[in-house]
Amino acid sequence: MTLIAHISDLHVSKSDFDEEMFMTAVTQINNMQPDMIILTGDLTNNGYYTEFEQVKRYLAMFEAPLFAIPGNHDARNLGYQTFEELIGERSWKLTMDDQVTVIGLDSSSPDESKGHVGTPQHMWLEHQLDECVINDNFSIVSLHHHVVSIPQTGRERNVLSDAGDILKTLTTHEVDLVLSGHKHVPNIWRINNTLIVNAGSLCSYKLRGKNKNSYNVYNITDDEIEIYLNEVKGEKFLFGKYSRNRM
Ligand SMILES: [Fe+2]
Ligand SMILES: [Fe+2]
């Protein structure tokens, strides 16, 4: 069994970050003892160096290994450089127990809101996913921008500019889970054998309507994937349940 917490869109800043909400979530996630935490971007609100310094201190409060990719807000004000200095690589791959492969992609561009994976990173992704297929690994791809439009998020503006090609690669390789953030609205789409899951914002005031701060939890067994939607100060419920390889 593998337990993964998926958090997103912290927006650490003077204006949009709810510190108390964050601290509550840290306690909940530490008590859960997940195998890993995946953070799908917008760690900061403006990409400022001082915001990243704060983020680094906040993220150290999590006990589980945490892997982050940048969002569009992190790529502002030279934040894409600061991310590499204070957080880590902007795209990466890791394998757990020779069975689970997690890939992080950087879909941000300096000082732009739109998402773009780009040809070099797409080719690298193809190669990594070929290996996942050969090794029959459970595969997870994480990126900040949504690959498919999300309901109740207004006019579509920031879906990946190369979404069609990336979606083709993800579905033909039968990637098990695609994890994104950006819209601050939790959602699940299933396309062919691939689950495309968005997390809400963990602790930002930037919420739509009655949406609450939340994070997702994935409980992956040999047979099933359970997806839980955890509102930090609200309900925690089963958001979706899917059979593995028999979807
Ligand atoms: Fe965001
Ligand atoms: Fe974003």
Keyword list:
binds fe (ii) ion, globular, Purple Acid Phosphatase, chain A, domain 2, 247 residues, 24% helix, alpha/beta
Write the layout of secondary structure elements.
Blueprint: E1 2-7, H1 19-32, E2 36-40, H2 49-59, E3 66-69, H3 79-86, E4 92-96, E5 100-104, H4 119-135, E6 138-142, H5 163-172, E7 177-180, E8 187-191, E9 194-198, E10 214-220, E11 224-231, E12 236-243
Parallel strand pairs: 1-2, 2-3, 5-6, 6-7, 7-9
Antiparallel strand pairs: 1-10, 4-5, 8-9, 10-11, 11-12
Helix pairs in contact: 2-3
The site of one fe (ii) ion has 6 residues, from loops.
Report what the structure shows.
The chain is an alpha/beta fold and 247 residues long. 24% of the residues lie in helices and 27% in strands. The protein has 5 helices and 12 strands. The strands form 2 sheets. The chain has a 6-stranded mixed β-sheet, with no helix packed on it. Strands 4-5-6-7-9-8 form a 6-stranded mixed β-sheet, with helices on one face. Helix 2 packs parallel to helix 3. The longest helix is centred in the middle third of the chain and has 17 residues. The structure holds fe (ii) ion (2 copies).
Short description:
The protein has 247 residues and is an alpha/beta fold.
What's the architecture in CATH terms? 4-Layer Sandwich
Q: What portion of the residues fall into strands of 2 or more residues?
A: 25-35%
Assembly state (oligomeric): single chain
Weakly predicted, low-confidence segments = none
**CATH fold title:** Purple Acid Phosphatase, chain A, domain 2
Q: Roughly what is the average pLDDT, rounded to an integer?
A: 96
Tell me, briefly, the overall form: globular
CATH class: Alpha Beta
What order do the SSEs take from the amino end to the carboxyl end, as H and E?
A: EHEHEHEEHEHEEEEEE
* First and last CA, distance: 19 Å
Rounded to the nearest angstrom, the radius of gyration is: 16 Å
CATH evolutionary superfamily: Metallo-dependent phosphatases
